[in-house]
User: Fold this.
Amino acid sequence: MQTAAIEQARASDSDILQELNRNFIRSVQMSDVRWFDQNLSEDFLNSNGDGSLSERADFLVQIGRPCPVSNLCAEDVRIRILGEPSPTVEWERAATPTFTRAGKAGGFACQRT
Assistant:
């Protein structure tokens, strides 16, 4: 059975992860390389839409270009914290990002762990 302190830590971690997710989406839309540079781990990998992976440095270059879509948002965001709270939290995020490109609405499903 989990103690109240663990439940409170989980709620706090969840709030932090929700805020990080909101800032991630905002920073993609605004090409905010500085935010990503301050918040990504050195071993960060990004899964691109075509299935390829970008390492941190390549991702920062990619983010620095103007975002080709508008109205980017993440819908149906679900965050699960796996295991006990610790300095390094393992988490899983599933979301449905939506956007507008050339006047047409679009979207895709993604999951990051």
Observations:
- The radius of gyration is 16 Å.
- Residues 4-29 form the longest helix (26 residues).
- The first strand starts at residue 45 and ends at 47.
